[in-house]
Amino acid sequence: MAKLKAPRGTQDILAQDARHWQLIESTASKIFQAAGFNEIRSPIFESTELFSRSVGEDSDIVNKEMYTFTDRSDRSLTLRPEATASIVRAYIEHALDRQGLPQKLWYRGPMFRYERPQTGRYRQFHQIGIEAIGAEAGQIDLEVIQLGITLLEQLGLGDLILYINTLGNQASRQAYTQALKDFLGSVQEDVCEDCQRRYEQNPLRALDCKVPADQEIYQGAPSIHDYLDDESKEIWQQTLAGLEKLEIKYKIDPKLVRGLDYYSHCVFEIKSTSKELGAQNTVLAGGRYDKLIEDLGGKTTPAVGWALGIERLASLIPAAGLDGGLFIISDDALAAQLLACKLRQDNKQELQVDFDYNASKFNKQLERAVKRGYDWALFYMSDERESGKYKIKNLRKSVEHEDLSYQDLVKILSP
Fold first, then answer.
1. In a domain, 190, yes or no
2. Same domain, 264 and 389
3. 307 and 331 together in one domain
């Protein structure tokens, strides 16, 4: 019998990696709640029509990447390839606008796209994102961007660059699309088949092409900034002025268009210079989508949001950013268990404390503590139990503390 394995493009999140994920999710939750964003959870599969209407019937996601199936009632359903459409569907279905605007929401969960697996990218991947629905372009865009930067910085990432662009309003986008189509028509024979198809269906997608030779050609494409009307220019300048007031460093990228049809005005990406990700170095991306709610049957409502990939982010978090807890090394498993329970209780269950139920050899227990990534080892042998004093060692820094009272021990270990 063949050995069973996880399907290609999926992965098991084992204990050591799960600690990174837990840190990301708990940090995100605290930051978002502090800013008035409430969590929303949507189904992992939706009507196929939802994504074909929102993402775009001519998009690579719809044509090549969606996991679509027919259920027993002959309905076409799709595992969600992204979450914004699902959040907007829930917003419309439950009339969340009646609860007051803007609706500030955040989400987390798995997404699914059939594409070639590579570093930090899987066919089942996980995202965290935020959506601010019902606020005109301006300060809310800045808050959304700032929250993303705050989250990444609090997770210990410092090698970040914000790239930003504008797609303008509908009138500006239409004027630019025609100019871009004229340019693309002159280079049709020199670009890839996908871009030849995009010429007819959605010219802006050509700028998002990842083929190096095509990217070189598109350096000569017209810039959308030459086609912005007065309204679009004013909104764009307000956005840049706000970023400067908030002291957020940025780079303008006229070729940044994002891969989905529903974006307008401000679009952005935050990239990492880490070598861990290679060419796929975008950590967080998003933008404004003022027409999507109307396109899906709701009222005309402005909105903005972003999403980040947890897999990519988890690979960048420094080990020092993790709270690795405490491992008790003892020759008496019951005594270790009693101490572990007391330490957890006195640290209000915020400190991870573990021990060896078999009370195996000292060196074996110490090796286990190191392998499992614990920050501290507490030595609780017969001598320590008799004296009532405690000895701990920081396994990351090789720093020891001896002859500690219980109160001093709790103080050192307090998160």
1. no
2. no
3. no
Q: Tokens representing 189?
A: 């024979």
C-alpha to C-alpha distance for 272 and 396, rounded to whole angstroms? 26
Cα–Cα–Cα angle for 378, 381, 383, rounded to 5 degrees: 115
Supply the pLDDT for residue 224. 93
For residue 121, what is the DSSP state? B
Both 343 and 366 in one domain: the answer is yes
Q: Based on the fold, state whether residues 302 and 384 are members of the same structural domain.
A: no
pLDDT for residue 37: 98
> How many domains in the chain?
2
38: left (phi over 0), alpha (psi -120 to 50) or beta: beta
Residue 24 pLDDT: 95
195 lies in a domain?
Answer: no
Q: What is the pLDDT of residue 348?
A: 81
Domain end point (choices 319, 334, 368): 319
0.90 surpassed by pTM: no
Strands (E), 134-236: 160-166
What residues pair up with 110 in beta bridges, in sequence order?
126
Residues 305 and 332 in one domain: no
Sign of CA dihedral 31, 37, 43, 48: negative
Domain of 342, in residue numbers: 323-413
Secondary structure of residue 23 in the 3-state scheme: helix
Give the C-alpha separation, 311 to 293, whole Å.
Answer: 29
Rounded-to-integer distance, Cα 40 and Cα 132, Å = 12
Residues 349-369, mean pLDDT to the nearest whole number: 91
Separation between Cα atoms, residue 303 and residue 384, nearest integer Å: 60
- Judged against a pLDDT cut of 60, whether residue 321 lies above it is answered with no
Q: What is the CATH number of the domain that holds 297?
A: 3.30.930.10
Containing 50, the helix (H) or strand (E) segment is: helix 48-54
